[in-house]
Amino acid sequence: MKRFKILLCIICASLTVTFSGCLSKEETVIVPPLITPIDIEMKTVPVSKGSIIQELSLSGFIVPKMNEIASFKDGSGVITKLHVKVGDTVSKGQAIAELNTDDIKLSLKQAQLAYNQISNSYQELLANPESSKNEIDRIKLDLELQKLKVDKLKNDLANLTLVAPISGQITYQYPYVIPGQMISAGAPIYMISDINSLVVEGTVEKTDALKVGMDVTNKDNQKGKISQLDITPFQSMLQSGKDNKSYNSIRIEMDGLSPEKLGSSITLSILLDSKDDVLKVPKSAVKYYNSAPYVRVLKDGDRVEKFITLGIEGSQEFEVLSGLSEGDEVLSN
Questions:
Q1: Coiled-coil region(s) at which residues (predicted)?
Q2: How far are the Cα atoms of 51, 181, 203, 216, 311 from residue 270, in angstroms, in the given order?
């Protein structure tokens, strides 16, 4: 029994040593440094009244108002002569190209000889008192039919000479138009443009705000008006790729467009709307929550969020229809 007590004391002593070895020394507490909060300056602007202009910017190209494609509408054959080239000025009715006429000239010569022969026979019958009415009527009919054949060949011959449909400048020659090339009826040969009457043409996403007659300006303060506005779904595919947006093909009549600017690009501003004496706020002050516009108003040192109703959109500002009063201080940052 005495021996058991001694053993128990030894075990307890060893456990005490073991647990005391597991205890760590007391750690030093590190006090975090004090951070001075950043003083954020709240920039405000007063809600004011004034004028606001809503404009639409677009890019276009200076092009001739009138373009005509010259083609052999009723004739086909091999090109033998090209009388003009790109850059040449032509007058309406001027010969500008010819197709091979050898075969048709031969046919016309033969038809004309046959006509002359029938005409002589007809005159002889008329001069002969013994000629019957049936003989005269028959040869008269032959003469008329031959005259129709001659007239048709003359018309066909004329169709082998291409004349300018309008007065203007040759602005394009189609690449396949070379001497010796076979041309089908209706194939385009030249583009002729009236370069003394120029317009601006472009494409803009469709909007109900655009109307014919609207004023247009550019950075040089040249003035103009929308003269034509067409919905062009085909151009929508070219412009937007995968979307189904519609686009307006727009034509603008402008002052001061000289022939030297033909083909150059130009940036224009279209006046959509303008208002005077309306409440307005900077665009930078307007935020959105679920597409609803709101602003932060500074009131007695506190920020108060207010939902607002917007009107027209200017380049830097919005018109405010409701939700704010003149003099309200709105946060712009």
A1: 108-163
A2: 17, 47, 13, 5, 18
pLDDT-derived band of residue 36, with 50, 70 and 90 as boundaries? low
Q: For residue 77, which amino acid is it?
A: G
Q: φ and ψ at 24, to 5 degrees?
A: -85, 160
Which H/E stretch holds residue 5?
A: helix 2-22
- Give the separation between CA 3 and CA 200, rounded to whole angstroms: 118
- pLDDT band, very low/low/confident/very high, at 307 (cuts 50, 70, 90): very high
Would you kindly state where each structural domain of the chain is located, as residue ranges?
44-53+275-331, 57-65+196-273, 68-99+160-195, 101-159
User: Of 3.40.50.720, 2.40.30.170, 3.40.50.1110, 1.10.600.10, which CATH number belongs to 57-65+196-273?
Assistant: 2.40.30.170
Give yes or no for a contact between 46 and 281, defined as CB atoms under 8 angstroms apart. no
CATH 3.30.565.10 at 44-53+275-331, yes or no: no
CA angle 263, 269, 272 (to 5 degrees): 135
218 contact partners, CB below 8 Å, separation of at least 6: 254, 266, 267, 268, 269
- In one-letter notation, the amino acid at residue 185 is A
For 57-106, what is each residue's pLDDT tens digit?
888 999 999 999 999 999 899 999 999 999 999 999 999 999 999 999 99
Q: Which H or E element spans position 136?
A: helix 133-158
Reduced to 3 states, what is the DSSP secondary structure of residue 154? Answer: helix
Dihedral sign for Cα atoms in the order 244, 59, 268, 68: negative
Which DSSP letter does residue 120 get?
A: H
The crossing angle, in degrees rounded to 10, of helices 133-158 and 102-127 is 160
Start-to-end C-alpha separation, the chain: 88
Q: 68-99+160-195 — its CATH code?
A: 2.40.50.100
- DSSP 3-state of 76: coil
- The answer to whether 252 and 200 are in contact (CB under 8 A) is yes
Q: What is the pLDDT of residues 232-290, one digit of tens each?
A: 544 444 454 545 667 778 999 998 898 888 889 999 988 888 999 999 999 999 999 99
